[in-house]
Amino acid sequence: MTVATAPDPGAGRVVPLAGGVTAGAGVPDAWRTEERRELAALCGLAAMTPRRLWSLCGPDGPRAAWRALARGDVRAAALAAGGARRSGATTARLERLVARWHEAAAATRPEDLVEGWARQGIEVLVAGDDAFPAPLARRPGAPVVLWCAGARPAGAAGADAPSSAWPGGGAPCVALTGTRSSTAYGERVASCLAEGLAAAGVEVVTTLEAGIDAAVRAGALRGGGPLSALAAAGVDQRQPPGAWQAVVEGGGRVLSDARVGARPERWRFPHRNGMLGRSADALVVVEAHTTGGAMHAVEAALEVGVAVGAVPGSVHSPSSRGSNALLLDGAHVVRQVEDVLAVLAVSGAPAVRVGGGARPVGVVDDRRPAPDGVDGAVLAALDEELTVHLDRVLAVSGLSLPIVAAALERLVDGGHARRAVGGYLRAPERGHVRCADRLQP
Amino acid sequence: MLSVVRSATLLGAHGRSVTVEVHVSNGLPGFTIVGLPDAACREARDRVRAALLSSGHAWPLRRVTVNLAPSGIRKAGAGLDLAMALGLLAATGAVDGRLLDGCVFLGELGLDGALRPAPGTFALVASCPATATVVVAPGAQQDAVAAGSHRVRTARDLRELLEALDGRRPWPALRPCAPAPVDRAAVDLSSVHGQELGRRALEVAAAGGHHLLLVGPPGAGKTMLARALPGLLPPLGDVEALETSRIHSAAGMRPPGSGLLRRPPFRAPHHATTPVALLGGGTATIRPGEASLATNGVLFLDELGEFPAAVLDALRQPLEDGMVRVARARESVDLPARFLLVGATNPCPCGWGVHAGACRCTPASRARYLRRLSGPLLDRLDVQVVLSPPEPDALLSHSGTPEATAAVAARVAAARARAAARGVCSNAALPTAELEVLAPLDDAARALLRRRLAGGELTPRGLGRVWRVARTIADLDGAAEAVGESHVAAALELRGAATLLRTWTVPA
Q1: Closest chain A residue to the Cα of B469, Cα to Cα
Q2: Does B217 contact A at CB distance below 8 Å?
Q3: pLDDT, averaged in runs of 10, over chain B (508 residues)
Q4: Which of A180, A401, A412 to mutate to probe the B interface, most B CBs <10 Å?
């Protein structure tokens, strides 16, 4: 993969995608405002694809298409004529699909559908809305509609009005992602980058996965900035539940182009990762294997010309091989928040708002007394970023197991160390923002 | 016309006394064996006939009936050949029947009249009355001598045996026991580099009789550590040595010519082992399984997760009761099975799950892998540690040889002596009701346990386990009467894998 040969972002071709409904050349304003509910209802039908949507709406628009569906006036032939048979579907299958759509359209009104979503706390974003991720809407292959849970402004009239209350609207947008099997180093960098960016007012986009992305979400929420997390399943599925809840309750939002009720099927994950790569002004890979979700995002980003950065990692760590390889291929080197801001500046994103809600970065408040004696000797054997196995603590300190175990117990209790899978980590000295200035040369 | 000769047969791991009655009468010539002989036993007819003819005796052309009493239990194998041949000779008057009184005859016969060892001679002799003279084949004499205080006689073949019985020639001299064969697979701790935690886990397991679980990536040294464990256990006492030797003999596992087994056995069955092979049983004869063979030693189950769930769950009864009861319609046999269980497993399908960044297993696949470990079985493993492969420095530096097995075994023996003073064979057997008295906790230790219980990191069931392990650590540490905070902290540390497994088996 060579970063230097990214295609011209202005090429503007429609990227055919398996899921979601793409905006292509852009959603007409009338559809977005007056026929919004019908458009959302159409996108919410099972197996709706971009080509099928454009074939259905034609020149008459979503409202007419929905009424025709409800009356049963739409024939599969119309879909076929619109070029919607690219998926290889037979006429018989298309007939069955249209019959299902007809049933759904006849049974519900778009108003009720959208109201029902609103009652579940789900809002509809149409490409072009202020709250719709602006970089995503600009790119080819953008979904027409995103469903959104969380970050719902209090007293919003309902889902049928374009929302403009999202604090991230108009802000530059950075996607941060990485591997699920992260190291303590990667998690620290991810959380500290996310916190710094969020504090600087940059919208942070990531996914709902574990590992690096979890650290990104935690950091962004701590930084108090706008956080969008992309879900692979429909937003009502609340999958994975812990991450979903943390984002929504922490003030972030969960976005998905999968219709409400869509299960987290396997193919949705790479699709979601691709969308992540296109939904920001810059994509930063913190720690990644040479294959996997983060690389799907990188491929998608390069395809549409999103700037890609990567955080250097240990040359020994398998989970840094992918991110280090990206650097070798010419990705921007990201060490700290300022590096990301520099990437944003050259990629033509909106200027970063400084001040306003931004919080000071780099405040360290560590009043804990440093442990001494046995505890100090044991703490000296630990590391902030590499999990240290008890074997090493015993060997380095030369103390007996009961003494080391009691010391570790005191250190963990006092917040100086923490347990990790397969050993112990030294706790960072209060606060994660501190690591940002540590990374400076 | 009638003669009575004493012998013995195998039932599970025990011998059972058998009386061989031979009756010779007029009638149609024939040879009938009654009293539940199995196929090998019924074939005795042809072997006895050939052996008698080869030894220069006549085969009686009369009606011969052999009864094996008690007739209710099944007689297995060819070990009764010798008794039948002598009974026949006595019944036909070729030998004076009084010479056979007070003797027990154990052995197969070759067609040339040679005596061959009966399988399970050790167990058979152990079941004979202590005053009896035991006559066995030359190949089994060491077993017979080791099995008890019986007078042991041996002869090469039937002719020599009859001459010795008559007093026409002296009994052949007994050969001394060969030294016990060296266990080549045994590992000395001085060759285990690094692995500080693993070494301590072994020491505690050996000292307290605590079952052990080793979790670690491939190449971390799980098998090596497990093989070092028998060396840490104290040598078998007389009672244990007899019991273990008897079981090994009954299973046909003893090398010929060896004396009592003094080293704790180490058994490592493969994960394809069937429940019957592990626990004992079988259709014709009940053979002790691997669990019984590991009695007073170590049963090592490598790749614990690969064992079928049925096999692992079947181990729960022996772990509780110290024996396996194999019940058949006709009989029920108790096989001893008191062993130290050592399980080893990878933390996840790829094996590198405890190393941050190295494992790419999904939480779901990890949970699926670990769920195959039987929960109730894991509950019985007191010491559960996560191992890490030794660091290159530890492997290559020759700055110091790691502590050898002998030094650790001395500490283990001292700790075991403390446990014995409390009236239990090891701390793992401390009754829950008496923990407060026998393993009193000091205030700091109590506070630590309360914190862990309140935090949900320790379950009420795990509490007793940690408590006993802490007692063992205190015993190893010195004379401390009360169990201190550091001992409890170390015991919790030696249970680190339990927390890991619990978190990983619950899907996120």
Answers
A1: A402
A2: no
A3: 92 89 93 89 91 93 93 86 94 91 93 91 89 91 86 93 91 79 78 88 94 91 92 90 88 74 90 89 82 93 89 87 83 88 91 79 84 83 90 70 88 91 86 88 92 85 90 85 90 87 70
A4: A401
* Of the partner residues B362, B387, B500, the one whose CB lies closest to the CB of residue A421: B500
Tokens of A414: 């006092």
Handedness of CA B354, B358, B364, B369 (dihedral sign): negative
Q: Name the least confident of A191-205, A423-437, B91-105.
A: A423-437
Distance from C-alpha of B78 to C-alpha of B107, rounded to nearest angstrom:
7
Whether cis (ω within 30° of 0) applies to the bond prior to A240 is yes
Q: Is A246 on the interface with B (CB under 8 A)?
A: no
**Using an 8 Å Cβ cutoff, are A185 and A158 in contact?**
no
Shared fold status for A134-153+161-346 and A373-434: no
Model confidence at A430, pLDDT cuts 50, 70, 90, reads low
Q: In what order do the strands lie in the sheet with B133-136?
A: B30-34, B63-69, B14-25, B2-11, B103-105, B133-136, B151-154
Question: CB–CB of A389 and B388 under 8 A?
Answer: yes
Q: Which tokens hold the place of B206?
A: 């050996």
pLDDT at A366: 54
Class of domain A134-153+161-346: alpha beta
What residues 90-119 of chain A have any CB closer than 8 A to a CB of chain B? none
Phi and psi torsions of A413, nearest 5°: -65, -40
Does residue A161 surpass a pLDDT of 70?
no
Diameter over CA atoms, chain A: 84
Say if residue A386's pLDDT is above 80. Answer: yes
Residues of A in contact with B198 (CB under 8 A): 391
Which residues on chain A are in Cβ contact (under 8 Å) with B484?
402
What pLDDT was estimated at residue B176?
A: 76
b (16+ CB within 10 A) / e for A72-106: eebebebbeebebbeeebeeeebeebbeebbebbe
Tokens at A435, concatenated = 């690591």
Of B109, B88, B210, B121, nearest to B158 by C-alpha is B109
pLDDT in tens, A68-103: 888 888 776 666 555 555 556 677 788 888 888 888
What's the CA gap between A225 and A70, in Å, rounded?
43
A355: helix, coil or strand? coil
Q: Give A212's DSSP letter.
A: H
A181/B360 CB distance under 8 A: yes
Domains and CATH numbers, chain B: 2-166 (3.30.230.10), 189-505 (3.40.50.300)
Q: For the residues A253-270, what does the mean pLDDT come to?
A: 92
**Comparing C-alpha atoms, which of A81, A144, A54, A390 is closest to residue B492?**
A390
Residues A193 and A13: their CA atoms lie apart, in Å, by 33
Average pLDDT for A373-392: 89
Contact call for residues B345 and B303 (beta carbons, < 8 A): yes
10 Å CB burial of residue A162 (0-12, 13-18, 19+) is middle
What pLDDT score was predicted for residue A79?
66
Contact A408/B448, CB-based, under 8 Å?
no
What ipTM goes with this model? 0.81
Q: What are phi and psi of B68, to 5 degrees?
A: -105, 105
Domain boundaries, chain A: 17-119, 134-153+161-346, 373-434
Flag if A395 and B362 touch (Cβ within 8 Å).
Answer: no
CA distance B315 to chain A (A): 28
| pLDDT at site B310 | 87
Q: Are A198 and A220 in contact (CB under 8 A)?
A: yes
- What pLDDT was estimated at residue B256? 61
Asked if A389's CB is within 8 angstroms of B493's CB, the reply is: no
Quick one: fold of A373-434?
A: Arc Repressor Mutant, subunit A (1.10.10)
